[in-house]
Amino acid sequence: MATLELQNISKSFGQAKVLHDIDLAIRDREFVVFVGPSGCGKSTLLRIVAGLEEATQGRIVIGGKDVSRAHPLDRGISMVFQSYALYPHLSVFENIAFPLRVAKLPEAELKRKVGQAAEILQLTDKLQLKPGQLSGGQRQRVAIGRSIVREPRVFLFDEPLSNLDAALRGDMRVELAQLHRKLDATMVYVTHDQVEAMTMADRIVVLNGGRVEQFGTPMELYHHPASKFVAGFIGQPN
Ligand code: ADP
Ligand code: MG
């Protein structure tokens, strides 16, 4: 069970407190979107879950186990970075295989896992190409493939579509929803885009100034906003 609990998370950078007592329980296989304006603390919160940043206070619990002190690679979590994090000189195959090479996986098992990921992402006929020969959407899929091969229980996405054009963003939203169904994994997706949040999420966390304004389904937020901020934010897509 890949439930993800954020218990009482606070974070300060020096004197500046950027996260205030964040308490959230995310269900196994749920697709949860963190949404809020720029600077509200979304990336910091995701980095704390991933173990790339240390919380000033609080605990991260995955599948009932406290991982607050665990190394990022031992948390069963994978963070998907934007497509420009690919290695331009390596083939698609080697880009996807990279974490498995680092883990010194036997070649046969490595090939099997990369093949599986490529099939899920419809990249099977692109494996010998270099990232520069791919479209933006295909490059994004390679970045996701690199996460899939590690078989994480929880996927984290930090604004993965923000450098794609509007049409491609729409396609990728649909692809990510399909991927969520295929992989049966818990996913946390960060965006400042209300439309993305409303169309993709099982439940949405609205963040403002480092605090949770509301945690609920898109319909709950739309029909029963907990604050003026939520009403304005959900009501006014940019
Ligand atoms: P978001 O992803 O929602 O745009 P961030 O999590 O990046 O927000 O930032 C939240 C706040 O924390 C901002 O005020 C930002 O300036 C501050 N912040 C983020 N990282 C650091 C850091 N390493 N040092 C100091 N302040 C930081
Ligand atoms: Mg951010």
Features:
globular, 36% helix, binds adenosine-5'-diphosphate, 10 strands, 238 residues, alpha/beta, binds magnesium ion, 8 helices
Short description:
The protein is α/β, with parallel strands linked by helices and 238 residues long. It is built from 8 helices and 10 strands. A hairpin with a 2-residue loop joins strand 1 and strand 2.
Structure explained in plain terms:
Helix 2 (92-102) packs across helix 3 and helix 2 runs parallel beside helix 4 (136-148). A hairpin with a 2-residue loop joins strand 9 (203-208) and strand 10 (211-216). By secondary structure, the protein is an alpha/beta fold. The protein is built from 8 helices and 10 strands. The mean pLDDT is 93. Strands 6-7-8-3-9-10 form a 6-stranded mixed sheet, with helices on both faces. Strands 2-1-4-5 form a 4-stranded antiparallel sheet, covered by helices on one side. 37% of the residues are buried. The termini are far apart. The chain binds adenosine-5'-diphosphate and magnesium ion.
Helix count, per DSSP? 8
Instruction: Write down how many β-strands occur, each being a DSSP E stretch of 2 or more residues.
Output: 10
The proportion of residues forming helix, as a percent range, comes to 25-40%
* β-sheet strand percentage: 25-35%
What is the CA-atom radius of gyration, in angstroms? 18 Å
For the largest beta sheet, what order do the strands appear in spatially? 6-7-8-3-9-10
Shape field: globular
